[in-house]
Amino acid sequence: MSAQQSTRPLVFKRGGVEVTILVPLPLYPVAERLRELFSAECPSEAEPEQATTELEVTGKVLALACERAAQGTLEGGDGFDFLPVVSVVVQHLESRYLRGNDVHAAVAGVPASARNEVLRAYYLALAALGRRGLLTSGPLRAERPPRIASALFGAARAGRVRLIAVFGGQGNVEEYVEELAALVRTYEGVVEPFVRRAALTLAHHSALPEARDEHAARIDLAAWLEKPEARPAAERLLSAHISLPLIGVTQLACYYVAFKVLGVDPAAMAQFFAAGATGHSQGLVSAVAIASSRTEEDFFANAQKAIALL
Q: What is the pLDDT along the chain (310 residues), one digit of tens a residue?
């Protein structure tokens, strides 16, 4: 919002903590409706007192705003009533708590479960605003503070440290599925396009006649991530024809989130790893995929080849 635009404070309360957000007057009725919904869903009087912070409360407000914007309904509205409010909450979070820093640094002192909630809400909000062009134009772009570069990757760029990307081989535990599910839950706004493509690739290849001759079941990654009860038994998750491609998806999804969160393309990301990329066993496939990618389109194409190969 511009400095000249009139605003009005709106207070959100949760667990004894108050967060005051300045809302432009034209958006105030919708923001006030959001506060009513927030109070109805999270009545502080009905909850036990627990340690919480303004950042956590802001994350919860942002999560609800994103949810309502995605639902596209406000008293029969046109589906985008809440999106400008999402922008206002993001601006408040960035100016009040991030101040140009990375969101991961801001949530470092927050308990893990709450930390992931804030991260999920923040990246869902950025994805929603990005789809509507609200990150590259309008008030939010003008108000966002300059971004502070990553200390680690800044040191790598300056040559003070030499990094190497190392991808592991096939494991003997089934937790890799939960690791991928946790990544998707936290960074859905970032990683969803990659995981959707990977799921289609796995579904296609596992349904081919030659695959059906060797293995009975189709790999339905989308269902397994959405519904834990739909996942195969542990011994099947450990079988090579399932674990190899899904471990590869997990590795490449983590790398995808990393370069997207850093705001760089695969070519710039690769430059951080001056010592190169390598892997053990199947990890070599993931290493080749990232080393061969210069653009995001390259990465998508090479990742699908790697997943199909595995």
A: 444 569 999 999 988 899 999 999 999 999 999 999 999 985 545 555 565 899 999 999 999 999 999 887 445 554 558 999 999 999 999 999 998 889 999 999 898 889 999 999 999 999 999 988 887 655 555 566 666 678 899 999 999 999 999 999 987 677 899 999 999 999 999 999 999 999 999 999 988 888 777 665 789 999 999 999 999 988 888 888 899 999 999 999 999 999 999 999 999 999 999 999 999 999 999 999 999 999 999 999 999 999 999 8
Residue with tokens 């999106």: 83
Cβ(274)–Cβ(156) under 8 Å?
Answer: yes
The position carrying tokens 């009545």 is 43
- What are the structure tokens assigned to 141, written together? 């772009």
Instruction: Provide the token pair at 291.
Output: 């080393």
Judge whether 55 and 107 are in contact, CB under 8 Å.
yes
The span from the first CA to the last CA of the chain, in angstroms, equals: 49
Phi, psi of 167 (to 5 degrees): -110, 130
Helical segments of the chain, H only: 28-41, 54-71, 83-93, 103-106, 112-131, 139-143, 151-158, 175-186, 188-206, 209-214, 221-226, 234-237, 240-262, 266-272, 283-291, 296-309
Q: Which residues are CB-contacts of 88 (< 8 A; sequence separation ≥ 6)?
A: 1, 21, 22, 23, 24, 27, 31
Supply the pTM of this predicted model: 0.89
Q: Report the phi/psi class of residue 76: left, alpha or beta, with left for phi > 0 and alpha for psi in -120 to 50.
A: left
Query: In 10 A of CB 275, how many CB atoms?
Result: 12
Q: What are residue 7's phi and psi, to 5 degrees?
A: -130, 165
